[in-house]
Amino acid sequence: MDRRKALKNMGMALGYTIATPTLLGIVQSCKNETVLEWTPEFFTKDQGAVLTKLVDIILPKTDTPSASETQVNIFIDRFADQVMEKEQQDFLKMSMDRFIEKALKDAGKEKAGDLSPEELEPVLAAALKVTKEDEVTNNLAVKQYNEAIAEGKEALLDDGIARFAFANNLRGMTIWGYKTSEYVGEKVLAYLPIPGEYIACADTEELTGGKAWSL
């Protein structure tokens, strides 16, 4: 997989819009904490262990660092804790629990922290293996579920759809967090620490070699 080529053309249209100072503050706080010392703020310790393994399944180490090596797991935890609305937090916890329950059942284990990448990967792959039609149907079901919850109504969501929602959201946040990391921002994307001349209309290939600008 040529991740460098994929990332340089990838946009930020993942459905998450927050103020730049908030995002930069989260990124800065992640830089000061190593993975080995990390204690999750939003997730439990076992959920944090699962999260770390999952982000590395999504973006493993190749010619660039893995997701956890750029502290994407910490970023997601901080983002969930500091930025997400309570309804989003509740949905993330619920969908992650459904995902972990499936992984534990398939692996014959009781503790989430004991799940290995080899046991998590097939659950992630199955959750993301949907047709375009199924994706539309799943997203509509998630929308209706969240609307019902917001109105204080009783709502049910199919386990498979919940796992899809978790896996799909996690994939988006992982890629987003990876692009936001210092390493990718400076080494993979087009990086200009102090912008100089403003060129309103020019070819991307000519200006950055086809790379997206680092934020």
Would you write up a description of this structure?
- There is one protein chain.
- This protein is 60% helix and 0% strand.
- It contains ten helices and no strands.
- It has helices spanning 3-8, 20-31, 45-58, 72-82, 86-107, 117-128, 132-150, 159-180, 182-187, 204-208.
- Helix 2 (20-31) packs across helix 4 (72-82), helix 4 (72-82) packs across helix 8 (159-180) and helix 5 (86-107) packs across helix 8 (159-180).
- The longest helix is centred in the middle third of the chain and has 22 residues, at 86-107.
Structural class: mainly alpha
Give the helices and strands as they follow along the chain: HHHHHHHHHH
Weakly predicted, low-confidence segments: 1-21, 188-192
Strand content: under 5%
Main pleated sheet: none
Instruction: Give me the number of helical elements.
Output: 10
Distance between the termini: 24 Å
Question: What is the 3D shape?
Answer: globular
